[in-house]
Amino acid sequence: MNTITTTDFDFPNQKSVYRGKVREVYNINDELLVMIATDRLSAFDVVLPKGIPYKGQILNQIATQFMQLTEDIVPNWLIATPDPNVTIGHLCTPFKVEMVIRGYLSGHAAREYAAGKRTICGVAMPEGLKENDKFPEPIITPTTKAENGSHDEDISRESILENGIVSKEDYIVLEQYTRALYQRGTEIAYNRGLILVDTKYEFGKTKEGKIVLIDEIHTPDSSRYFYAEGYQSRQNNGEQQKQLSKEFVRQWLIANGFQGKEGQQIPDMTEEYIENVSDRYIELYENILGEPFEKANIESIHERIRMNVMNYLNS
């Protein structure tokens, strides 16, 4: 299958390359970042062995559209998207926290709640909630930004400030931006028949000291969506919610005995399964953006990306 799972480009004035779980980021002359969304698939902080056709394009195009749909309320790092898999933006120094915001008791928060905990990241959760119930108000539950191969860890606002991870002045801005982005994302999702359950944002600081949104926003890898229709009846009846996120991949792995723990084997990903995952990501794209997905040419995907980036950098 034609996928892009790793890159080895040599762009003009290239200083370094950072390889994350899914994205590879090229530093151009300490001024620009060229971020390539690969087709790698990660779950439980493990990169799975095979790529998913069009996944990188899907994540990149969703993030680009949402950057454009929110730039009036929060500044971001985006300059251009010269290729379906590529974003070029301002070089920023990332904050060492990810800002997670939750409108509903789902995922990690629900697992903590089921274990009897009533605070998460120093934030109180009300008694009497069921999994996937709406919180009275959205809560911010930050995590530390994990290095390659390690897990993100919950952290409280107090610990962030006490340990000087982010200054109080900057952290207040991060909180304000996080709430504004989640509110906008919730409104857009509602208009598309969806509920934005929870999501995470990453921020950085430009050379000029401006705080901007970086990385991705409102993609199925960083966010959880429910279908709005039937949400309340499913809650009332104790049924599982219909989700739009990569949770289906996690559930498949769990069903096949893998949760990223030591000694566990990643199950075999057949071509049929890979095609199914690709189709699900396309479904996510079309529901989240409310438009048909147009597949880019992946015959020579590496060369296509290289030429498009070179043309931009030389223009």
Key attributes of the depicted protein:
single chain; 315 residues; alpha+beta; Phosphorylase Kinase, domain 1; D-amino Acid Aminotransferase, Chain A, domain 1; 2 domains; 8-stranded antiparallel beta sheet; 5-stranded antiparallel beta sheet; 8 helices; 17 strands; 32% helix
Total number of helices: 8
CATH homologous superfamily grouping of the largest domain: ATP-grasp fold, B domain
Q: Which architecture of the largest domain would the CATH scheme give at its second level?
A: 2-Layer Sandwich
Query: Mind describing the biggest β-sheet?
Result: 8 strands, antiparallel
Structural class: alpha+beta
CATH fold-level label of the largest domain: D-amino Acid Aminotransferase, Chain A, domain 1
Secondary structure: number of strands: 17
Number of domains: 2
Could you say which overall geometry the principal axes of the C-alpha atoms support? globular
Low-confidence stretches: none
**SSE run:** EEEEEHEEEEHEEEEHHEEEHEHHH
Q: Just give the CATH class of the largest domain.
A: Alpha Beta
